[in-house]
From TrEMBL:
One of its GO terms (biological process) is positive regulation of cell growth. The lineage of its organism: Eukaryota, Metazoa, Chordata, Craniata, Vertebrata. This is Armadillo repeat containing 12. It comes from the Eukaryota. Signal peptide: none annotated. It holds the Pfam family Arm_2. GO terms for cellular component: nucleus. Residues 68-278 form the Armadillo repeat-containing domain. Gene3D superfamilies: Leucine-rich Repeat Variant. InterPro entries: ARM-like, ARM-rpt_dom, ARM-type_fold, Armc12. It comes from Gorilla gorilla gorilla.
Amino acid sequence: MGKSIPQYLGQLDICKSVVSLATGAGAIYLLYKAIKAGIKCKPPLCSNSPICIARLAVERERHGRDSGELRRLLNSLECKQDEYAKSMILHSITRCVYLLEAEASACTTDDIVLLGYMLDDKDNSVKTQALNTLKAFSGIRKFRLKIQEHSIKVLELISTIWDTELHIAGLRLLNNLPLPDYVHPQLRRVMPALMEILQSDYILAQVQAVRLLSYLAQKNDLLYDILNCQVHSNFLNLFQPTQSGSLLYEVLVFAERLSEGRNAPHYCAVKWNYNEQSLHESLFGEESRLADRLLALVIHPEEDVQIQACKVIVSLQYPQDLRAWPSSCQPSRSYFKNTE
């Protein structure tokens, strides 16, 4: 609780006594510490603060009572609001969905449709908050199919707007949904954009992008589109030991899935042509330096990265189902022939 003026004066009297016992800079320091300790004492939180409202709502739900907070927010979203107000309302809805499970489950698909409309707002922050809210609702099973219907729109936003926060929100949503086959044509069109996000300098967006690409690499009809996607000449910098451990791990998972996919008998039975600047050539081409990068990661300080690097090495050296391959598909070289 806050202190009254007399209490502060009493504290200052104590400080005077301290000053009489100390001299110079030491006295000033002790006086500063005493006053700072009093200032740090804050008054109680206002009952109208978001934290208090959230606590009250959670307490109501715990006792089986509907706080009405989530419904009130959704209803207010239908009214005419400016961009800032819409962003704040959406942020509050997202918080309520996570906190008020029963109230969130009582919502309807009409609420999901309303949130979908927000993806067409002219303001990027509104779009981003709407994506975060849909991500929150995607954790409730009965809404997943309805939210899936917005997948193509989300992919369009990610590929046409260069906004890091929007990318993170959109990719987190997509990574929380099973993507239906009818979305695959749109996925092919946005593959270059996903690869650009992966090669950007924003770790959170990179991690979400590579997670989605790893998932898509397991789809037979998308594997070639991923492998033939054009990448920067320095793509292998993503495998540098100095990269974030979380990003390194996800990139290595991606490499393992690509290696396994390209070595599968049904994929190897077709003669594929790749452009010179493709992801395939960067990772698996004759001039690739991937092996050197992998060997350096075997001694990475993070154990998860070490293990995943070893898995990629094994997938390159000893592809699965090797005996089932046609003779023309047998690997012609070792990636590690010059190393022990």
